[in-house]
Specification:
This is Ice-binding protein C-terminal domain-containing protein. The protein is an alpha+beta fold. It is 14% helix and 22% strand.
Length: 276
C-alpha cells in the first residue's frame, strides 16, 4: 500500500473528504459549461454512495486496469480512497490520448461537504470537445462507499464508442447511456474486505493489505457493512443485488451554452447499454 495511504488511515474519512475537495477543484475537472454533457445518476437502489466519477474520452488506447492483474497505484487510490489525481495524471501522460478531454463529475451538495453522489442524487459535468471523432471512446471510474476497495469502471477501453466518425453521439436518440448493475462492481484486490479502516464507514480499525488482483466483487464482499453506520450518519440496510441498477451515465452533446440549452433539454426513448 502506498505510504501516504497509511497516514490517511488514521483519520480516513476526514482526510479523504479534504482530498476529494482539492481533487475536484483542480484544472482537470468537468467545467460549469461546455459542449459534452456527462450526467451521473446514483439510482438510489441501495444505501451506497459514489465518489466523484472520473471520466475520459480517448481513441481506445487508454486501458487503466485489467481483471486478473494487480491494480496500479492510481487505481488503488480511487478504489480505496476515491482519489482521482493519479488517473488524471495517467490520462494526461498517455501516448496518443488527448489528456485535456477528461473530467470529474461531483456533487457539491454531498454529505458533510464531501462532493460524493448520494443515493438518489444526480451530478453533471461538462467538457468542451475539439474533434470528437478523434476520441470516440469513453472510460470512467468511481469508488463505491462505504467499502474497502470496491469500484466501478470499464476494463475494456473499447467498451463504449460514444462518438461516430461524423462527430455525432453514437445513438439515434442523441444520448449515449451506460447502465451499471450490482454485477458490474469490481474488487481492486488491494485491501481485505473486512470493513476495517474502510473509507466513509463509521467503523474503527486498520485496513489490511491484500496484495491480490482486480476481479469481480462478488455479492458477499459488502456484507460486512450490513447494519453499519456511514460517515453521513446513515445505516446500510439495502445492498446492491447483482441484478439491481446502481448507476446510470448519460452522455450527450449540448449545442448551445449549457445555461440556455439545459432549460429545455428533454431526453426520451434512451437506448440503454449495460456496462461491458
Amino acid at each position: 500500500m502506498r505510504g501516504f495511504i497509511s497516514i490517511i488511515k488514521e483519520h480516513k474519512t476526514a482526510a479523504i473528504v479534504a482530498c476529494l475537495l482539492v481533487g475536484t477543484s483542480t484544472g482537470a475537472i468537468a467545467q460549469a459549461d461546455g459542449d459534452i454533457k456527462v450526467e451521473v445518476i446514483n439510482e438510489g437502489n441501495s444505501d451506497f454512495f459514489l465518489t466523484p466519477v472520473w471520466f475520459g474520452f480517448h481513441n481506445g488506447q487508454f486501458d487503466f486496469f485489467n481483471s486478473g492483474e494487480a491494480a496500479s497505484a492510481s487505481l488503488e487510490a480511487i478504489a480505496e480512497d476515491g482519489i482521482v489525481d493519479g488517473l488524471v495524471a495517467d490520462f494526461t501522460a498517455a501516448p496518443g490520448v488527448p489528456g485535456d478531454i477528461q473530467g470529474v463529475v461531483s456533487n457539491p451538495a454531498g454529505f458533510g461537504g464531501a462532493p460524493v453522489i448520494d443515493p438518489g442524487e444526480t451530478a453533471t459535468g461538462f467538457v468542451t470537445p475539439i474533434n470528437p471523432s478523434a476520441y470516440q471512446y469513453f472510460s470512467f471510474a468511481s469508488m463505491i462507499i462505504p467499502s474497502n476497495d470496491t469500484f466501478i469502471g470499464n476494463d475494456n477501453p473499447f467498451a463504449y464508442q460514444v462518438f461516430t466518425d461524423s462527430d455525432e453521439i453514437n445513438d439515434p436518440s442523441g444520448v449515449f447511456t451506460i447502465q451499471i448493475f450490482g454485477s458490474d462492481l469490481y474488487d481492486a484486490g488491494t485491501e481485505v474486505n473486512d470493513g476495517l479502516g474502510a473509507a466513509f464507514s463509521a467503523a474503527a480499525g486498520v485496513s489490511t493489505d491484500e496484495n491480490g488482483t482486480v476481479g469481480p466483487l462478488g455479492d458477499e464482499n459488502l456484507l460486512t457493512f450490513f447494519d453499519g453506520q456511514t460517515a453521513a450518519g446513515t445505516t446500510v440496510t439495502d445492498f446492491i443485488g447483482s441484478g439491481e441498477l446502481l448507476a446510470t451515465i448519460n452522455i450527450s452533446i449540448v449545442p448551445e451554452p449549457a445555461s440556455a440549452s439545459l432549460l429545455g433539454l428533454g431526453v426520451a426513448a434512451l437506448a440503454v447499454r449495460r456496462r461491458k
